[in-house]
Amino acid sequence: MTDAWGSNExxxxxxxxxxxxxxxxxxxxxxxxxxPAPRSVVERPISGWSARxxxxxxxxxxxxxxxxxxxxxxxxxxxxxxxxxxxxxSETSLMLxxxxxxxxxxxxxxxxxxxxxxxxxSWPVVVPAGPNQLVExxxxxxxxxxxxxxxxxxxxxxxxxxxxxxxxxxxxxxxGPGPVLVVADVWTAHxxxxxxxxxxxxxxxxxxxxxxxxxxxxxxxxxxxxAELARCAERDPRLALAVRxxxxxxxxxxxxxxxxxxxxxxxxxxxxxxxQALITAAMDARRLGQESPLTADVLRAAVVGYLDDxxxxxxxxxxxxxxxxxxxxxxxxxALTPTRQRPGIGPPDGYVLHDFLDHHTREARARKxxxxxxxxxxxxHATAVDDRSRLAAEALQRGLYRLAAGCAxxxxxxxxxxxxxxxxxxxxxRGATAEASxxxxxxxxxxxxxxxxxxxxxxxxxxxxxxxxAQPAAAGSVDALxxxxxxxxxxxxxxxxxxxxRRLVAAGQPLAVSMLSxxxxxxxxxxxxxxxxRSHAQAGDPAAMWYLADMLVESTRVDEAVRWYRRSxxxxxxxxxxxxxxLACLGRLEEAEGPLRTQMRNGVETACGHLADLxxxxxxxxxAENVLRGWIExxxxxxxxxxxxxxxxxxxxxxxxxxxxxxxxxxxxxYGIEPGGSTAAAWELAPPRDA
Length: 691
Fold this sequence. Notes:
Blueprint: E1 43-44, H1 77-86, E2 94-100, H2 106-116, E3 125-126, H3 131-140, E4 146-150, H4 153-156, H5 163-175, E5 180-187, H6 188-195, H7 198-204, E6 209-213, H8 223-235, H9 237-246, H10 252-257, H11 259-267, H12 273-288, H13 296-302, H14 318-326, E7 336-339, E8 350-353, H15 355-362, H16 372-381, H17 385-397, H18 401-413, H19 417-430, H20 433-443, H21 478-490, H22 494-506, H23 510-522, H24 526-538, H25 542-554, H26 558-571, H27 576-585, H28 593-601, H29 605-617, H30 621-634, H31 647-658, H32 662-671
Parallel strand pairs: 2-5, 2-6, 3-4, 4-5
Antiparallel strand pairs: 1-3, 7-8
Helix pairs in contact: 1-2, 3-5, 5-7, 8-9, 11-15, 12-14, 12-15, 13-16, 17-18, 17-19, 18-19, 19-20, 21-22, 22-23, 23-24, 24-25, 25-26, 26-27, 26-28, 28-29, 29-30, 30-31, 31-32
């Protein structure tokens, strides 16, 4: 790996070019030979990088008098924290993670802090092209006094296929002699997911990893910060416009990025149908894992699935017109930014979606099923290994096995270990054990014991009281009360235990409510228990609602019990698995449908399987099948980072068998589904080259 360092040349932007064709039928893997040698990376001091090259958003323009370069920088409270952490970075390794919403100024804050750190200015800043190159660099050992710059770390580096290898490599480098500085930024929602991901927990729990939250706006700014903002706005017309436009929210950095205006235009439907469809296709491509610029060929092929029959009638050069509209700048910023990857001067050969649009529409589109036209366009035209690996992982999660194989094959033959593991899973699902072993052998996984994440602790109410005596707690604190309760319970002092629970209820501990109600009922104090539960249920506590409903059933007040069961399940995903059986026991099964559909609309994945079960019990098998097919294709479970069969596939196969369609059940387990949800026909998967 030593020859990968020290290059002053620009490396390959998006990895080696591979191409997969003919993904409409059988999947043929085009053999690319041995794993390519490590690509050289760019490393130069911070002074040799522009803010834009390191991922800082392009700023709006106002007029011809707009200053060159990024807008005047306003130092805020988080800047002081960042710069304080960097003071010690020359002695010990540090991973600095800036967390905030899109366009909140995370990357700019890191850029300015590094430029201001005199003792770090000479350190070469290394910008990996993607996760595969980063894994190569980490495996070879990062030389001391280097800065690894990981912009959009969750999306671009700690993605589903590569998260384990990247996290392990970062742990090793940060735990080594160093010193090495790793600078990363991540959206707030992505950081919450990463912090709870087992493959990343060893990394985020290192003392060398420090997280700094970047304020989303100037709304809570100090007087000093507001004065500095006003001073800079006097010198920079872009800031002045942002301050005026940001209004009460003072979302200055977002306005500087141009994002809010782009979002308003998109959500308001102010584009032509063709331009709107191009932008939507770019959004879906990004959330499926396509980080490289989208070519006109991809967009031309993909957009058809986003247009209705009327809008598919178009004359002239409709694509050129639509691209021009989507790329038309407002104050210098566009929804799709034209780029050129090929050498020399010429027309654009790709288009990049604005990050703000991706961030603010990703959740709304999370459960939308991308059309077949987009999947096919990406599988046919994607060239970057990292992109193909991410697309393959998304396709597998959605039951689209044929497309997953088509994306993964070229990536695997180019050396992507995650793609090899995915192909091994597909071979296992088909019963091709020899081919699966061959892929595992190539990936180094033949003797590996995969440990997929068990999400069950997050999907059920706690049955055990928390072990609050593990650490000393301050007297009078909630932890101290739990400690007292645990001690009283262990010693058999039930009245003292009840007293502790009352104090915990008064302190706002929801778990204590149900625990206290159980102990009150055990002592024959039914009326007091019901009063307790009812008051908390009426205040919106779903667990109290459920326990109250159980009490009401025992006293034959079934109608009221059903209402509380339904309300609990509408508010809490934890009640969803319990609802069908609870109402079935009361002969009120059909009344479970409403809450389950509510939770489906809220994005609670477990509701889909339980709704399908309910519909099948009610004799509505076709509806149950449609729910399962839509669930499989529309959901990519964020907890499932290792490749495996989608959760709903076994449920779908079971339903098909019970409906007398055993052959189709077997086929769907082996070959998956197609975009739109139909069962895939049998297709062939070529073995690895050296199998």
